[in-house]
């Protein structure tokens, strides 16, 4: 027997099945399951669709578009008369004309939006009733399909155009086949954020605008390439950020939401005023100083950011909270324009709750976190998260563009176009990692074997649907479905397409599904907020593996001496209930095998152990392959499936999990130490066991500790060093000596006066006594 998993996991709070059955129609109800019929996409395979499903709900191809818009979305299943009427309404308010091609296929053009995520839209064929609906996915411009982008050739020239020794022709290219026209217009669009109303709380009334500025060329041949020598545009110099758009020349210049191709957002150095070209450094320095004043008056966002992972290994492993920064990716050659000296950066996936800010963490080739206190290429947090934050639309939460205005343009002013990066880094200092706590990982792999959050290992071969993790207090439910696979001559063969899938939750939970040679491994990452708040097949996350075999009713089976049968009883107890299932049953097989019968199949009894017969020709090869840690899982899966490939896949999954645990091992950071003024610091490693040494420049003397070591309790040995000149040291020592001399003289005088007082006080007493004794 071999168990494979089909995983569907999300917060149970997000699953809502409507019970409103009025009219039993799918109009406005696409995706819902009604009382007597269904408007869910699975109704087609289950033959349970409402009568008007095909007329009310449709799919689109492609299913995504850049949020800049301009992509033709074909409406599947809707065939109209060529050149017939079609209106498209996005988000219930943005009304645009669609079109029907010569073959009767209907299209809507995705609109320019200031948000990412699923965008609902509906269509009308009579201009009155919008009775068909669907949705598409609006993506960050940097994540859009590269084939649909205008590519700026020699990006460095575009970034520095107008600075000393940077001039000449600028060039860009595009896929000419994606614009079905012989002639095109080439336009420049500019982005800004401005006050829509004069109010005391200005940030609450900022508006975003991407607007047509002017055309670089009209009615040009659609060759897929264009070059030009830019001229300063005094009237448009205030527009410092923007995009190039290419559309068919049949469209009016600057027309919104027409089919076209966009470049990525970029700084418009090439069209800035003549003053920039005459003295770009002075121009940029002036802008940097104005930004400095602006930042001083904005609220502090640094305190609400999460700390960075301490090492590159942690940063790449913590997939529930951090994701690769595409501008500095070790998998793509580590082209880190804004973080020189680094090989990889990650961003916190979710923006901070109040200001919508973002954390960025960058690492060098040794895997160490790079800090701005040591390098201008260090990690820099962002006032506006690059990926935006809900509810989007309004600054500073517009994906990509708000980040450019708040965090990137100022980097050009202060660091790239002028040598005043200290001003920028004053407002964007690195966060350190002293408060970072790595997540805990649990995994299910192979046929299937479990390693809990606390490290307990066991095998459970039940057939059904079960809770991997249940945390009602945190609103998290991760469920798994196991299915017996009959190989070769059997009915079902699990043969998924290669690839990995990661599901990320706002709570910092990550669920990663990896495929290995026809088998599946599911890893769940939980942040420390879930400590003492989990149960299920991956155990109770509390650093105590002895209680990980707790059945759903609360009884604890001792893991130290649990039998295979007792473990099976424990696993079976975590079957899901029908009303808590997160699964979709979109075939007769799933209905018959999982939805109708109990969620745990009591008639299925697995082989609890398999003898290794020396007569078995498979055993010799198995023993050669299955050795070291994880060998018991490798052997079991090889023998149960009679397939060395499966056993090897299980071993690989096990080894990857062990590597993950090693990467997530907690480390201690003592925090950043500054370089003494007029001195030097040797070393930038601030983790436990590291030693930093300090020295002073010529003419200066060390005062404090020349070496400091990071201890296991998070503190540094010694005292903070400082470097002072010989003259200052002599003056200080002389001053200290004078003060000591004065203090000494004062003490002597005080003692002398006290002695005299005692003598004057004692003398009359002695005289009286003498008179009495005579």
From TrEMBL:
Disulfide bonds join 696-723. Residues 1-23 form the signal peptide. It is found in: Membrane. The keyword Repeat applies. The keyword Repeat applies. Residues 22-61 form the SMB domain. Residues 367-582 form the VWFD domain. Residues 280-428 form the AMOP domain. Keywords: Disulfide bond, Glycoprotein, Membrane, Repeat, Signal, Sushi, Transmembrane, Transmembrane helix. Its main location: membrane. GO terms for biological process: nervous system development. InterPro entries: AMOP_dom, C8-3_MUC4, Epithelial_Barrier/Signaling, Ig_E-set, Somatomedin_B-like_dom_sf, Somatomedin_B_dom, Sushi/SCR/CCP_sf, Sushi_SCR_CCP_dom. One of its GO terms (cellular component) is membrane. This is Kringle containing transmembrane protein 1. It comes from Oreochromis niloticus (Nile tilapia). The lineage of its organism: Eukaryota, Metazoa, Chordata, Craniata, Vertebrata.
